[in-house]
């Protein structure tokens, strides 16, 4: 029961994007299409899970004063792995995400879960926590990316729903990210209130 | 107001209300509406009616079904937003774009923040800028006035290509960036008297300077607005462009040109003076107006857009809470503390 809670809280109750408002930089920056949002979300989920496991395992070895630099080293290792794998196997996604992949290192969620959860819990709980948080983040980014892609260019996962000429270009640009995210959060807060 | 009311002071009410002020502004916009219908014909009528109707309908639906409070569509504020939005759009804009603009203006610009009185940004301009960024092609296809009038009377223009043309400001911008000498560009532009009466391509309501000034005078006489915001905006634009003209007469157009083209007058008189989104104190209004003037000229001359009034007003709208916080009028009876040695 408790382990299930560690996993499931990342989706709704403590969703990084919709509830905690963490990791806003990739959330607003890369969600111009659903596929970008999903790719970014899964990359972050992988880094989050792996770094949570490693940090939970070595937490007793890390001196308290240098724990943040140590966490960063662990996280950066996995980000480098993701970056190289993506460059090798998904070059087009790598192109469109660009700088945001290396920026996962300083993503608030990854560091936040390391500090708040992995450094205090065992490896299994930390893995479930990282997986739940990461997939919740991926879900949020995919939803936001789907909305923006649909409204902005009339497509969902590159499938045309209506002609691109009728799309509202602003949703593909930065201001549209803020508008779409604002309404999504308002909608989810409203759901929570009534639930 | 004949009945005596038992209440704390003030006891005398002038009968001023939101409704009265909103309809006052709408009346003041009528000359400009007439001018836009005269120059752009049926297109202006269609744009205005669609925009006003859509705004009122969206306001009613949102208030009734989403906010679940008493609809207040008859206070004129939604109709005014619709009218101002229509004035900022090119005529012959597709109707579905106008409806999206109205939904954004009322839904995002106004109702998301809690309705009239709570919106930090001018709703009509939110709608306009949203459309400008979303549909750049449609939003910058300007019909030229006279030929679309001929069209209205059933005469087919000989050169079909000339039914749309650039605004004077975009002609200027393109000319300067292509390195054409200023004197040559000036010959392509309408003369100042033509500009004054609105004989140029542009948004429906912002063309005819004469009609807008007439409306502005009405607002001032009826004391719906004070002089501070319009005068500070116009004054800043004039001073700034005069300075630029003096520095480099070949490169920059003069103050009269900048004042009469684009949305400076419409923005200064009708948009920036919106009660909700402008500062409360007179000193704050002057700072607000100077900011709008400076940003407008900066965007027009150094920015990538030919016209910057709507962006300038929205940017300064964002500063209004800050201005109101720091510029407070002296309270009645307040003693300024003298420094002790």
Can you put this structure into words, describing what you see?
- The complex is a heterodimer of chains A (195) and B (341).
- Chain A is mostly helical and 195 residues long.
- Chain A has one domain.
- Helix content of chain A is 67%, strand content 2%.
- Chain A has helices at residues 2-8, 24-29, 34-58, 67-89, 91-97, 108-118, 123-153, 174-194, and strands at 155-156, 159-160.
- In chain A, helix 3 crosses helix 4 (67-89) and helix 4 (67-89) crosses helix 6.
- The two termini of chain A are 22 Å apart.
- In chain A, 43% of the residues are buried.
- Chain B has 341 residues and is mainly alpha-helical.
- Chain B folds into two domains: 18-139, no CATH class; 174-325, no CATH class.
- Chain B contains 16 helices and two strands.
- Chain B has a two-stranded antiparallel sheet.
- In chain B, helix 5 packs across helix 16 and helix 12 (228-247) runs parallel beside helix 15.
- Chain B is globular.
- The termini of chain B are far apart.
- Mean pLDDT of chain B is 80; it is low at 150-163.
Question: What attributes does this structure have?
Answer:
heterodimer; A: about 200 residues; mainly alpha; 8 helices; globular; B: about 350 residues; 2 domains
Strand order of the largest sheet of chain B: 1-2
In terms of quaternary structure, the protein is: heterodimer
Radius of gyration of chain A: 17 Å
Strands of the widest sheet of chain A, in order across it, are: 1-2
Strand coverage percent of chain A: under 5%
Q: Give the termini distance of chain A in whole angstroms.
A: 22 Å
Biggest β-sheet of chain B: count, sense, barrel?
Answer: 2 strands, antiparallel
The helix-strand sequence of chain B is HHHHHHEHEHHHHHHHHH
Number of helices of chain B: 16
Largest interface: pair, residues per side:
A-B, 12 and 9 residues
Number of helical regions of chain A: 8
For the record, the count of structural domains of chain B works out to 2
**Which outline of chain B best applies?**
globular
Question: Helices and strands of chain B: which structural class?
Answer: mainly alpha
Name the structural class of chain A: mainly alpha
Number of domains of chain A: 1
Low-confidence regions of chain B: 150-163
Number of strands of chain A: 2
Measured by DSSP, the beta-strand proportion of chain B falls in under 5%
Largest sheet descriptor of chain A: 2 strands, antiparallel
Topology of chain A as a string of helices (H) and strands (E): HHHHHHHEEH
């Amino acid at each position: 029961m408790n382990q299930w809670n560690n996993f499931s809280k990342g989706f709704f109750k403590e969703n990084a994007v919709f509830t905690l408002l963490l990791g806003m930089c990739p959330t607003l920056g890369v969600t111009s299409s659903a596929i970008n949002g999903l790719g970014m979300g899964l990359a972050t989920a992988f880094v989050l899970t792996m770094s949570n496991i490693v940090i939970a395992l070595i937490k007793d070895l890390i001196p308290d004063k240098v724990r943040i630099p140590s966490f960063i080293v662990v996280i950066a290792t996995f980000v480098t792995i993701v970056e190289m794998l993506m460059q090798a196997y998904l070059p087009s996604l790598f192109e469109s995400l660009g700088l945001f992949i290396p920026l996962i290192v300083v993503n608030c969620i990854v560091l936040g879960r390391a500090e708040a959860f992995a450094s205090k819990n065992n490896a299994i709980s930390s893995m479930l926590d990282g997986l739940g948080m990461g997939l919740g983040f991926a879900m949020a980014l995919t939803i936001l990316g789907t909305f923006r892609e649909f409204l902005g260019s009339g497509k969902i996962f590159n499938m045309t729903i209506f002609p691109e000429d009728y799309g509202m270009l602003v949703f593909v640009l930065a201001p549209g990210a803020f508008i779409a995210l604002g309404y999504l959060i308002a909608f989810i807060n409203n759901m929570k209130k009534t639930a | 107001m004949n009945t005596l009311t038992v209440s704390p002071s003030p006891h005398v009410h002038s009968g001023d209300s939101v409704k009265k002020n909103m309809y006052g502004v709408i009346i003041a916009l009528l000359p400009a509406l007439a001018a836009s219908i005269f120059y752009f014909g049926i297109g202006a009528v269609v744009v205005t009616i669609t925009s006003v109707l859509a705004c009122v309908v969206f306001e009613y639906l949102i208030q009734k079904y989403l906010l679940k409070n008493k609809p207040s569509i008859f206070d004129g504020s939604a109709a005014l937003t619709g009218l101002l939005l229509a004035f900022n759009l090119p005529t012959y804009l597709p109707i579905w774009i106008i409806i999206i603009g109205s939904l954004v203006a009322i839904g995002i610009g106004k109702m998301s923040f809690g309705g009239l009185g709570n919106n930090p940004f001018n709703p009509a301009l939110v709608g306009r800028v949203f459309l400008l960024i979303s549909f750049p092609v449609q939003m910058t296809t300007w019909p030229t006035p006279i030929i679309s009038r001929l069209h209205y009377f059933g005469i087919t223009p000989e050169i079909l290509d000339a039914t749309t043309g650039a605004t004077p400001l975009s002609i200027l911008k393109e000319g300067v960036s292509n390195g054409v000498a200023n004197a040559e560009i000036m010959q392509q532009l309408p003369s100042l008297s033509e500009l004054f009466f609105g004989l140029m391509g542009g948004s429906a309501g912002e063309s005819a300077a004469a009609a807008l000034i007439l409306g502005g005078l009405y607002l001032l006489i009826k004391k719906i607005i004070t002089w501070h915001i319009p005068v500070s905006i116009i004054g800043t634009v004039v001073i700034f462009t005069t300075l630029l003209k003096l520095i480099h007469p070949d490169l920059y157009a003069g103050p009269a040109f900048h004042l009469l083209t684009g949305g400076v007058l419409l923005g200064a008189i009708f948009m920036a003076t919106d009660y909700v989104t402008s500062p409360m104190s007179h000193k704050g209004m002057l700072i607000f107006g100077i900011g709008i003037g400076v940003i407008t000229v900066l965007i027009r001359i150094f920015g990538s857009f030919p016209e910057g009034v709507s962006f300038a007003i929205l940017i300064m709208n964002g500063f209004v809470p800050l201005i109101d916080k720091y510029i407070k009028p002296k309270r009645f009876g307040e003693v300024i503390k003298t420094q002790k040695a």
